[in-house]
Amino acid sequence: MNNEPGMSLLPQWPIYLLTGLAVVIMAVSGYAELADPALLEYLVLEDGVLENLTAILLLLGGGFVFYRFFKNKKDKGIWWKVFHVVFGLTLWFGFAEEISWGQRIIGFDTPVFFQKHNKQYEVGIHNLTYGEFSVNRWIFSFGLSIGIGVYYLFFKILNERVKWIGNLTKELGAPIPKWNQTLILLASTILILFLNHDRKWEIFECIFVLVFMLTLYESEEG
Predict the structure, then answer these.
(1) Among 38, 61, 194, 220, which is disulfide-ready with 91 (CB 3.0 to 4.6 Å)?
(2) DSSP symbols for 152-166
(3) Which residues contact 21 (CB under 8 A, 6 or more apart)?
């Protein structure tokens, strides 16, 4: 997303806030692993501070995408519009998954299908299981991890060196990660491998969403 001449720049404080939150979470998590198991347990708590932060960020991120959509749609092509609508809805889908589609807020009963196939017995797609197949393990963990790795390690290079990728990125207005964001994500990956807790990936999930929101915000509008 490349800034057009004369377009006003967005304020810088969200960049400092998102970066600072990611660094603080990594520092606190590392300290908790070394010296305070109770604190680590608090960080990964179901419906805890980090999970709620992840949900809020996804909600705001989707809103930011639609803000850009309505602000710039008159000057954009059909594929830019389709991409931004799908992108925004995907972030809101992630938000809905984080709050179990409102079940944790409203408190409605879990439908029979999800009682049978959701390993947490709640409404949500990412925790579905079918026999030995786990949606969370193979799609949201294995598959998404590969996607994240490729995106943050190689996408910027591919965008600059492969013409058709660069053209497609420009046409869609897709966000391009910066190396400072890649470094934060690499540092968080090393930290997570160091942590000793079954739910440690809740911490990585929050840091990743922080970094992705940073990527989205820092992307120059195209």
Answers:
(1) 61
(2) HHHHHHHHHH-HHHH
(3) 53, 210
